[in-house]
Specification:
This protein is mostly helical and 290 residues long. The protein has one domain. The protein contains 13 helices and no strands. Helix 3 packs antiparallel against helix 10 and helix 5 packs across helix 7. It starts with a helix and ends with a helix.
Length: 290
């Protein structure tokens, strides 16, 4: 599949994301009077269907997009530490924004209402992690990597992933999560570490919401101390933690493999242009949403 076809596939997913979410939300309220199942579940199903159809039409073997090999213990440990650094960086960054709020708080509260914790985690953390990691790392990252090398593939798949979340408070954390996931996939040769990382990040709003509902003073007190830092302190600490998360995901190892980071030729130029366009898009979205 050529890069122009990957870009077209992404635009198709992007164009259908909000209409699908709106229709599913309206149906849920019309049928049940409340949001029974998060719209992300419908989005994930539609996204997988569109991607598999595109792969089938292009003749690309779908089995090549699945990679669940054995992962070393050191990678698992670094994945857990990466998740902690990423989550703290995300929390600090969101606290600096004028629209700062718990990530997905409304959807989480509505889903938790009348639902067990296991059911909520399944809908809000497991299903989106499986679908999004497969699409953005298993498909987009893998196919871009075959054409452009690791560097552009990681940036492009991360930007693709970030732009699917639309809200200002999601851009930084989604971009960072996309980069870390791509690096973990590259180093481990398996989607499993990136799936765990994504699951832990998605579980964070559920944990915060449940802690607030149960008045967990220990957890809420810890976050209160972090959020009490001055703006400059939050910014510096958020950036430091972002760098730490990228380091734990394997960036230093890949930087030593310069020949694998960037490939030459027309596909590389196309990849650079794609990254540039997406970066400008992210910038103007950031300015507009402010």
């Amino acid at each position: 599949m050529k890069i122009k076809h990957l870009n077209l596939l992404y635009l198709t997913l992007l164009a259908g994301y909000l209409p699908c979410q709106l229709l599913f939300t309206l149906f849920s309220f019309a049928a049940f009077g409340r949001l029974v199942i998060p719209p992300t579940l419908a989005n994930t199903a539609v996204m997988l269907g569109v991607v598999w159809f595109a792969l089938h039409q292009s003749g690309y073997p779908i089995r090549r997009t699945f990679s669940f090999g054995k992962v070393s213990a050191s990678v698992w440990i670094r994945t857990l530490l990466c998740a902690v650094a990423l989550l703290l960086s995300k929390l600090l960054f969101q606290a600096m924004l004028p629209v700062a709020q718990v990530d997905g708080g409304d959807v989480v509260s509505q889903t938790l209402s009348g639902s067990s914790m296991l059911f909520s985690v399944l809908l809000l953390a497991v299903v989106p992690a499986l679908g999004e990691e497969y699409v953005f790392r298993g498909v987009f990252y893998r196919l871009f990597r075959e054409k452009t090398g690791i560097g552009i593939a990681a940036l492009t798949s991360a930007l693709y992933f970030a732009m699917m979340h639309f809200q200002l408070e999601h851009l930084f954390s989604s971009l960072l999560l996309g980069l870390c996931s791509a690096l973990l996939l590259e180093e481990a040769g398996s989607l499993l570490p990136s799936l765990l990382l994504h699951f832990l990040v998605n579980s964070f709003p559920v944990l915060l919401t449940m802690a607030a509902q149960r008045e967990d003073s220990m957890l809420t007190g810890f976050f209160a101390v972090l959020l009490a830092l001055p703006a400059i302190g939050k910014g510096v600490l958020a950036l430091l933690l972002a760098v730490v998360s990228l380091g734990l995901a394997g960036l230093p190892t890949l930087l030593r493999q310069k020949s694998a980071l960037w490939q030459t030729g027309t596909e590389r130029v196309t990849g650079v242009v794609t990254v540039a366009i997406l970066a400008v898009w992210v910038f103007f979205t950031f300015v507009f949403l402010r």
